[in-house]
Amino acid sequence: MEAMSSTFFSPTIILKKSNRVSPPRNKIISSMIEYKSHTTNNIPSSATVPLMANKGGGAVVTKLLNDMEDIVNKSIDPPSQPSLDPKQVLSNIFAPVGELPPTECEVIQGSLPPCLDGAYIRNGPNPQFFPQGPYHLYEGDGMIHCIRISQGRATFCSRYVKTYKFNSERHAGCPIVPNFLSSFNGGLIARAARVALFVARALISRYNLLNGFGTANTGLAVFGNRLFAVGEADLPYRLRLTPSGDVETLGRHDFDGRLLMSMTAHPKMDPDTGETFAFRYNTQMTVKPIQMYLRGDSLIQSDPSKVPRIGIIPRYAKNGSELRWFEIPGFNNAHAINAWDEEDGEAIVMIAPNMLAIEHSFDRMELNHNLMEKVRVDLKTGTISRHPLSARNLDIAVINQGYIAKKNRYVYAAVGGPFPKVIGVVKLDLSKGEQQECIVASRMYGPESYGGEPFFVAREPENPNAEEDDGYIVSYVHHEKLGESRFLVMDAKSLDIVAAVKLPRRVPSGFHGIFVKESELDKIYSSVN
After folding, report:
1. CB of 349 within 8 A of CB of 407?
2. Binding residues for Fe cation, per the UniProt record (predicted)?
3. Gap between the Cα atoms of 206 and 245, Å rounded
4. How confident is the model at residue 18 (pLDDT cuts 50, 70, 90)?
5. Quick one: how far is CA 310 from the chain centroid?
6. Fewest Cβ atoms nearer than 10 Å: which of 4, 23, 324, 381?
7. Across residues 297-325, what is the average pLDDT?
8. Which parts are annotated binding residues for Fe cation?
9. What tens digit of pLDDT does each residue of 350-369 get?
10. Are 204 and 47 in contact (CB under 8 A)?
């Protein structure tokens, strides 16, 4: 048995992720100039969008549909929760930005280490059209924020992932795909109206559902010398990073017809074998769309009557019959960090944050607390032991990628302030005793400064004798009051700041990122040309 951790959703979470940028009559954000301030007062209000694909009668019908949706969103079913009100959700660090071509940056502190030659790339939601109706933070078109580093100099750019959904809506001049996470939990009349609007828009625009409706806004992955933007609701989208540091979308990728459905946005790569492991969960057993539609339920819910489980399966299992399930009451994990074998494969150890208030994981994220835990499963006896590693609110953590599926000592985790805002990063030492606080280093970003997921970059990735924490932690950090974003480089041993790059404009809060070293970039570029 060989352990590979990934993202597991316990039975207490019902998730089917489909994303949409909300209602029409909004300016296209990617064509706008960055606002001077980022409060809700400065977010663009409704305005007529050029109807690129529609002329004559088509434009009239589109305008009629836009007006109908305005009535639904403003009069029949306006956002009733702060967590679904776009004017609150998309404010300050979460406000969307337009695309930015490769732009030179200034190194304002220290110097960029040679091992950072390559690109740090991060994904995240950034709606093409500013929503008028209900909107959840997890939704929005995928936008890639890339800092290209070469010989101590840096270039930054922001580009949308040009998905089929994105291109279709850009061509139509308005949203087509409904907002599945937040548009269908209002009143019955509003739900029926939104379904009718979706059908009408899909017919007018000739939207082909077989081409997918995902946003590719969650993560990034490199395997087979290819770079992908990934999301839970669709196939991966292949990207190309140009020599100038620009990001281009090459298209939806099905691996020569072998991938017929969406896959996880959190694949894992074995650093020794080069194998990439991904999974897909079957929502048909738990998600009942018609029932949820009639009741106005959200697609993400918690069921306290269910007991969370983790599944363990041999790496080269022939079929699902080799999968074993273990119940772990009260353990609700979304972002597993690492897992490894012990006792010659007779035990599995997993490091992961536990969401203590799972009922708030979707609608009131600020009320949730993520307790980092070490979980040990004895495969012979079925005994499970757990102990916390820190009392802090920690999530979206990373390790040295060379230790995936191996016993590791150090973890670097984002500190919730509370989540979804990230106020700092901490380093945990797993070798500490079970009754001790495992945090051994900390870097808080300061008042009104917020970051995101940290990422570990090894100083000498090819050196087998290098220490596990010999490297750097990188992240984007934004100061809301100053309106300034930076790319921070921290020493992985102490979390002292080694270098800071002033970015040409604000980087919104997002999801997952990766670092691609120079040699890998060359292979990615060669595989395209």
Report:
1. yes
2. 266, 335, 512
3. 34
4. very low
5. 22
6. 381
7. 84
8. 266, 335, 512
9. 999 999 887 777 777 888 89
10. no
* Domain spans of the chain, in order of start: 3-18+79-527
- Rounded Cα distance, 73 and 92, in Å: 23
Rg of the chain (C-alpha set): 23
User: Cβ-count burial of 429 within 10 angstroms (0-12 exposed, 13-18 middle, 19+ buried)?
Assistant: middle
Q: Which residues pair with 248 in a beta bridge?
A: 240
H or E segment and range at residue 86: helix 86-89
CA-to-CA dists, residue 97 to 32, 118, 225, 413, angstroms: 8, 24, 30, 26
Q: CB neighbours (10 Å) of residue 417?
A: 17
Mean pLDDT of 201-214: 87
Tokens of 497: 């700041």
- In the numeric block, which tokens belong to residue 183? 């548009």
Helix (H, G, I), strand (E, B) or coil at 478: strand
In 23-71, where does DSSP find H-type helix?
Answer: 57-71
d(CA 52, CA 287): 36
Q: Are 438 and 426 in contact (CB under 8 A)?
A: no
Under DSSP, the state recorded for 74 is I
**CA–CA separation, 270 and 251 (whole Å):** 26
Distance (Å) of CA 5 to CA 76, 333, 370? 45, 11, 18
Question: C-alpha angle with apex 265: 263 to 271, nearest 5 degrees?
Answer: 100
Q: For 477-483, what is the mean pLDDT?
A: 92
Give the position of tokens 């694949």. Answer: 267
- CA angle, corner 222, sides to 370 and 398, nearest 5? 25
Q: What is the pLDDT of residue 493?
A: 98
pTM here is 0.86
**What pLDDT score was predicted for residue 58?**
66
Look at 495 and 58; give whichever has higher pLDDT. 495
Could you tell me the two tokens for 174? 């308005």
User: Are 121 and 513 contacting, i.e. CB atoms less than 8 angstroms apart?
Assistant: yes
Cis omega (within 30 of 0) for bond into 504: no
Taking the C-alpha atoms of residue 225 and residue 520, their distance in angstroms, rounded to an integer, is 7
Q: Is 511 exposed, middle or buried (0-12, 13-18, 19+ CB in 10 A)?
A: buried
